[in-house]
Amino acid sequence: MHRSTFPHRVLPWLLILPQLLISAVFFYWPAGQALWQSLLREDAFGLKSTFVGLANFRRVLSDPAWLNSIQVTAVFSILTAFFSMAIALLLAVQAEKVVRGRGFYRTLMIWPYAVAPAIAGMLWLFMFNPSFGTLAWPLRQLGIRWDPLLDGNQAMALVVAAASWKQISYNFLFFVAGLQAIPRSLLEAAAIDGASARRRFWTITFPLLAPTTFFLLVVNSVYALFDTFGIIHAVTGGGPGKSTETLVYKVYNDGFVNLRFGDSAAQSVVLMVIVIALTAFQFKYIERKVHYG
User: Fold this and answer.
1) Torsion of CA 68, 72, 73, 76, to 10 degrees
2) What percent of the chain is modeled with pLDDT above 70?
3) Is residue 221 part of a domain?
4) Which of 63, 188, 217, 290 could form a disulfide with 210 if both were Cys (CB 3.0 to 4.6 A apart)?
């Protein structure tokens, strides 16, 4: 086994210095600022600060609106991750069956990922607007009283659909790469043995996609918690009646709308702890079932 050595001790640190600087500037410094601000109480103009210790955390953790945002975030994150990954896997499997024009279909599937989250939200809002939406009219013809601007469950369904659609392309790319890495000889041998297409998928293809699936599970969890802010802001604004107000959107509401900087900072710290704990849980327990062949 060949071992790489560096001519002097400074070179390894110089090589990782750019990454360390990026992490320090864009993660550790903002995280430290948020942690310090969560211990303060500021006026609406930011002219006076008072150290209050953990008072902001106690107020946040006992706030019914924050507890509601926890529940909303859990439902939204689970549904978004599930539908975006399931649909992407289905499309990737079907795309692999295409013999002619495979590259063209893959390109069509990738395009939606280039759409900004806020634009994706507006597209779905226009399509399902209860007054003039092109896809809201068929729902009314079916007798469905469709109004996501007033119905909390319908609003949740709309933001989940928009967020899932935005993320399908990203998942599709990785699932296609994972499918291409599976040896065709395994599938052909199973087909010769008489295994049906469904049995080949669940006994060979899906288990071999475990590393890709685990990676996407982590990425989609973080995406649902953070990167969907633009979609929720464009579609529902957290309403109706806070039915779509996720944790990250409540941080925005309290900090930038209501100017409660201490509470907003405390919520951001709690959200950061939740994400770290969720990621650690996934790596500790879910990764055990992942087989890296």
Assistant:
1) 180
2) 95
3) yes
4) 290
